[in-house]
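Document type: protein sequence-to-structure record

Subject area: structural biology

Format: plain text, a pair of labelled lines:
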Amino acid sequence: MRKNLLFLLLTAFFSVLVLAACGTSDEETSGSGGSEDTEQTADDTEGEATEDKVYQIGATQIVEHPSLDAAYEGFQAAIEEAGLNVEYDFQSAQGDQNNTATIANNFVADGVDLIFANSTPSAQSALQATSDIPILFTSVTDAVEGGLVESLEQPGENITGVLDLHPDAIKNTVDFIDKYFEGSTVGLIYNAGEANSVAQIDAVNAAVEGTSLTTAEATVSNSSEVQQATTSLVGNADVFYIITDNTVVSALETVVNVAEEQSIPLLVGEPDSVKRGGFATYGIDYYTIGYRTGEMAAEILTGEKTTADIPVEIPPSMQLFINKEAAEAQGVEWNSDWDADAELLETEEAE
């Protein structure tokens, strides 16, 4: 009897142990599954957060004119193509370099995710305002001379971008003038306060050495002075050459009017100025360089790269553009070579 009772007690004891073990195993299995579910949910949430993130981009531009506007449009198109959700705060300095500092400081105070600096003065002010927020620039002629980067290959910790001047553009333009307007004095009008412009004027004067050409210069500090500066060169300049100076280009129609009235050929720095009445340029497409800058920005915003990973780029190519209507208005005798060598553009009415 005692043996049977002992046997029953032992059987009951081991049964409890087995049930307890099974219960623990089930709980552990359930707990492990719950952990995996939690991790999966976290991953899903993180993915949704990345897709739903709204990036804040501050866009700063020295002045509004067709070339800079085209670069900004290209930048936005590349961001949209990358599928990023972005809110833009666009600010124009209205041609006043003092305003660029205020704009940049406001962007920093607002904590934007990235600054798009469209011009040399805009980029300089952005770099002075922050060493942390990524800065992507374009419409900059010489990023090294402008103090934006130490070298094109190693731009810096928070800045890079795309230049707006092909290395051969100025030389080709000077050679064009020397070939077709031999012995001319080339009138140059620019804002001496723009580092971008000073670098180009230095390049023009260097390219003129050894040719039949000479130069005459007139400087301005704002767009209201462009007409007087242009008129001051009449009687001395045989050809006008307007580089990509933001101040002068913003008032280009003034120069066009003088060029037509005085029958002075007007060479310019980019195709949009040809469409506005310039005679010819060796230029690049500003929409294209803006688009490439936007591609860089997308890589940085998504964390794929940093500014330090992306060297400063130059425009991939340039083209001779000529406005036949402007040539006639400025008393230029048409050369048959240009039919084969140039892409012909027409004058567009100002909006």
